[in-house]
Amino acid sequence: MPITEVVSNAEALTLSIVADYPVPLARLWDAYADPRKLERFWGPREWPATFTRHDMAVGGYSHYHMTGPDGTISRGWFRFLTITPHQLIEVEDGFADEHGQPNTDLPGMRMTFMFEATETGSRFRSVTYFNSVEEMEKLVEMGMMEGMRSAMSQIDDVLTDLATFAATLATHAQLLNDTQVRVSRVVRGTPAQLWRAHHEPALMQRWLTGPDGWTMPVCQVAKSVGERYRYEWASNDGAQRFGFEGELLESMAPHRAVTSEQMIGTDGPATRNEMTLTPVEGGTLLSILITYPSKELRDMILGTGMTTGMEASYARLEQELLAA
């Protein structure tokens, strides 16, 4: 078990934890930066976590829920206040209601996560700051101490699973629930480079073409919130053509962009696509959380080989970035 120290200070209203790991500092940091890894240890063993948002940038948010043995759902959120790469993460943390909004009936807190290299690997220090003795006691009564110990006892398996840290892994789609899918891939490049690659039409038309045999003749980019975009693809033989259009709903360069998306020529409801770009070892974690209007549409789209086409495009994007 990696925890080497737990100190509760009622006068200072703090709870401090120290844990040591025999792995490089960058790998420990990436475990907190990558939601695919974080959700494997953020919740206690009996209450595994699922992250439906994780914008690890100052001002960004994370939304998650933990599912108990009987199916009970407990929701939470945190907002990033400070980030110093490979050194410090500071967040405001709280509970959420069934709509994902902050639940002010339950206590909130501030947490700092500190990272440092050691002779044997890396060290993690966390300090939780409570607002009052009463709130501190309430959270302890709710099982916070036991939950944190159980959660952190799982991180060893995550850190030693070298395959999940490989920057060469192909595009992967993870089903989060009946209507949401998270598509992820580490792309060798910086967040700024990937942001540019998603906002410059001439560059997009070189890489965002899916499998061989297709081109992107129409690439109208939305650069400001409220603007609409339109993308169209055509097969080289001219026999097939399709496209998508939608609206830019949120934008926080170079970390997060949210769009609606609908196939051109259809009347069905749109999907919501949330793209986040997070620096990790080996490049940038490109993650797209797609919310579909129904499970049936989700399964139909995934059944078209969507991730195969996305992987072809991202591989082409890497070649563009490496050649630049």
UniProtKB/TrEMBL annotation:
<dbReference type="Pfam" id="PF08327">
    <property type="entry name" value="AHSA1"/>
</dbReference>
<comment type="similarity">
    <text>Belongs to the AHA1 family.</text>
</comment>
<feature type="domain" description="Activator of Hsp90 ATPase homologue 1/2-like C-terminal">
    <location>
        <begin position="190"/>
        <end position="321"/>
    </location>
</feature>
<dbReference type="InterPro" id="IPR013538">
    <property type="entry name" value="ASHA1/2-like_C"/>
</dbReference>
<dbReference type="InterPro" id="IPR023393">
    <property type="entry name" value="START-like_dom_sf"/>
</dbReference>
<feature type="domain" description="Activator of Hsp90 ATPase homologue 1/2-like C-terminal">
    <location>
        <begin position="23"/>
        <end position="159"/>
    </location>
</feature>
<protein>
    <submittedName>
        <fullName>ATPase</fullName>
    </submittedName>
</protein>
